[in-house]
Amino acid sequence: MKRPLLIIIIILEALLAFPLYSVVKWAFQEKKPMNILVLNKTVPALDRLTHRSFFWILNNERFVDSEKKSSYSFRNDYYGFYPLKPLRERQHRKKDYRLAELIELAESNDAVYFVDTYGVFFSEWYQSTVNRVRRTRKIYGGLNNNDQLLLAEMQLRDKLVVLEYNCFDFPTADLEKYKVEQMLGVKSTGWTGKYFESLDTTSSADFPLWMTGMYRKFYREPWTFTGPGIVLVKTREIVVLELGKHLTAPMPLIETPAEKAEKYGVIGTVPFTGWFDVIDPMESEVISQFTLPTTAAGDSLLSQNFLAGSFPAITVDPAKHLTYYFAGDFATNKIRYSTSYLSKQGFLMKTYYSEKDVNDPRRFFWLFYKPLVTSIFSDYYMTLDK
After folding, report:
1. Burial class of 43 by CB neighbour count within 10 A (0 to 12, 13 to 18, 19+)
2. Which of 51, 46, 47 shows the shortest CA–CA distance to 331?
3. pLDDT for 114-142, tens place per residue?
4. Closest by Cα among 174, 163, 131 to 38
5. How far is 382 from 174, CA to CA, in rounded Å?
6. In sequence order, what are the beta bridge partners of 279?
7. What is the per-residue pLDDT for 338?
8. Among 225, 224, 43, 45, which residue's Cα sits nearest to residue 117?
9. Per-residue pLDDT for 217 more than 90?
10. Prior bond to 228 cis, omega within 30?
11. Per-domain boundaries in the chain
């Protein structure tokens, strides 16, 4: 056999052997029994993209149901909205907990993670209308009284509570919003925002056209934006930050001080492309900050709307460090679930994102969300009575 061919065969065998070794290593990894209640009311598709990456982490880190000793399923092991096959028939079911169950749920679960409480709406589910209206008739959603009471019961028992973006905004009622703000120790400003690769309305079929109508109504001017930018919206207000004019870089950044980055195992600075909300941290402890890379013109535009270029991305209660709020849509990540069966991704992880391109949005999952969630849940697991 010729030497070059032999070298190729050896390399191919090594590449095939590593995944097999990694799967076997994962299978023999020590399981971590821990009861985790997950709530996601915004699941408009069968791929369950809005929470799949969180379950990826649970599976990869070998967190299992304490009673069944089996891995969590991103398809079945959550409360909230369930789309049914075939999706074209637009059938669905809802899995809710009743008021009478709350005490038992708080007693039996070690942690709760509210991934998204926004919900599913008529235009999104039936896709029968162009996305020109910001808010259409609700099919299901909003943080309700039972949700708030469950969180309160978990806090009373000193258990881990994690909530994500959009717990305060529509369609959550004002009373529940206020109660949850008190529990988290933060205050919502009502502003939410997102990065867009292109502000051209023809750039994507998913572009939220309701923003253009909102802009025309507020400024009495046409929507003429075409390049990358960040859009901030409130109830009837809208701010558009354009790259080059208001921004020195296109994406919002999540920045974490060195000591906290080391504690949670996250990268110090990482771009974020999802939806986020602007909150006042009040007395809560800030772990990471959103930073908008603004120019002087951008700072002026923000100031005119009583906004700052930096605001909390992650907060935690300062006393017990058991109640976290992620002020961004952190759990929505396009990650292949099958890779969660590979133990310690090793050098393969570096093939999932660009090391050289600091603006590669895939870096967020691998260098921030994954280590953050792993650290929070693993550290908490060590405090449980085994």
Report:
1. buried
2. 51
3. 999 999 988 778 765 555 566 678 889 99
4. 163
5. 37
6. 188
7. 86
8. 43
9. yes
10. no
11. 15-185+317-386, 190-311
